């Protein structure tokens, strides 16, 4: 495990964990319209970065289909299911369910590559998942909320698993550019089905959408896929347990929330799991 790729994964988790402060500014904005604007801005920026690269690599037809699946699951379905889940379950419940993703990726990542999961990495993933669950907590929910949260978890895993085989040839920037670009028409096609009415964002909403497009999407996507390319899906996935930890730290600073003993114990467990992964992982 290289420090550089680990740092990319940690930076991604820091952005994701701290982004809820900005996301609160667009809670009243139409969800599909907001996501379409966010991904459109990200795609324009990412393709501008692609044009600066010396290699002129274009996705094949088969790769475009896979990129479309990344967009449909990891971007579009993820946001729709998340919105539905929030109507039937507390955010803490969703965060706890999605927090299983490190263990899921540690299991499915190697299997998708035709190799056996590493028992030690599975153990480390289980430790960080337990820690993330303590940090996130639990709350009120119904069956529909739990099912939708499970769908969010599946989409979260698909975002990495479907993209991983494309990274060696296309690279993180191209994979991010094409997946965000393909997500825009998919979101727009869903507008008539939901009855959502697009509107111009207010200045505060526009600033928040710009942050979500440029930082949460462009920076975080490229950093995450760079980490996945260097570490593999299974090892990179363990770092996702840091998302609720960074969210907890952001809430402590912004909202002046003092973490309780259970949350502090959760942070320590996440740290212990990451140390176990780092100390036992071969260099890549």
Description of the structure:
This protein is an all-alpha fold and 284 residues long. It is 78% helix and 0% strand. It contains 13 helices and no strands. The chain starts with a helix and ends with a helix. Residues 280-284 have low confidence and may be disordered.
Along the chain, the helix and strand elements come as HHHHHHHHHHHHH
Number of helices: 13
Average per-residue pLDDT, rounded, comes to 87
Helix content: over 70%
- Shape category: globular
Structural class: mainly alpha
Name the beta content range.
under 5%
Would you identify the regions where 5 or more consecutive residues have pLDDT less than 50? 280-284
The counted number of beta strands is 0
Instruction: Calculate the terminal CA-CA distance, rounded to whole Å.
Output: 5 Å
Rounded Rg: 18 Å
Q: Which helices and strands appear, and what pairs or packs with what?
A:
Layout: H1 3-18, H2 20-23, H3 31-52, H4 61-86, H5 91-98, H6 101-112, H7 119-136, H8 143-161, H9 167-194, H10 203-231, H11 233-238, H12 242-254, H13 261-280
Features:
0% strand, 284 residues, single chain, 78% helix, mainly alpha
What would a concise description of this structure say?
The protein is mainly α and 284 residues long. Helix content is 78%, strand content 0%.
């Amino acid at each position: 495990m290289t420090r550089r790729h680990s740092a990319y994964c940690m930076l991604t988790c820091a952005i994701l964990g701290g982004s809820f402060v900005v996301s609160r500014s667009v809670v009243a904005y139409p969800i599909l319209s907001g996501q379409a604007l966010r991904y459109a801005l990200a795609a324009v920026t990412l393709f501008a970065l692609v044009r600066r690269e010396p290699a002129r690599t274009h996705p094949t037809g088969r790769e475009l289909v896979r990129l479309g699946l990344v967009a449909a699951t990891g971007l579009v379905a993820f946001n729709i299911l998340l919105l539905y889940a929030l109507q039937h379950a507390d955010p803490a419940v969703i965060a706890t369910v999605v927090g299983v993703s490190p263990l899921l990726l540690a299991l499915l990542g190697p299997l998708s590559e035709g190799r056996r999961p590493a028992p030690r990495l599975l153990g480390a993933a289980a430790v960080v998942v337990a820690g993330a669950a303590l940090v996130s907590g639990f709350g009120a929910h119904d069956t529909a909320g739990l099912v939708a949260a499970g769908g969010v978890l599946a989409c979260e895993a698909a975002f990495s698993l479907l993209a991983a085989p494309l990274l060696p040839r296309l690279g993180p920037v191209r994979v991010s550019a094409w997946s965000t670009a393909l997500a825009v028409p998919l979101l727009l096609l869903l507008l008539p089905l939901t009855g959502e009415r697009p509107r111009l964002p207010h200045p505060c909403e526009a600033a928040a959408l710009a942050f979500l497009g440029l930082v949460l999407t462009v920076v975080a996507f490229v950093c995450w896929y760079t980490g996945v390319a260097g570490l593999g899906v299974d090892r990179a996935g363990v770092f996702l347990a840091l998302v609720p930890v960074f969210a907890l730290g952001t809430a402590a600073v912004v909202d002046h929330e003092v973490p309780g003993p259970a949350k502090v114990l959760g942070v320590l467990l996440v740290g212990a799991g990451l140390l176990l992964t780092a100390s036992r992982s071969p260099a890549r």
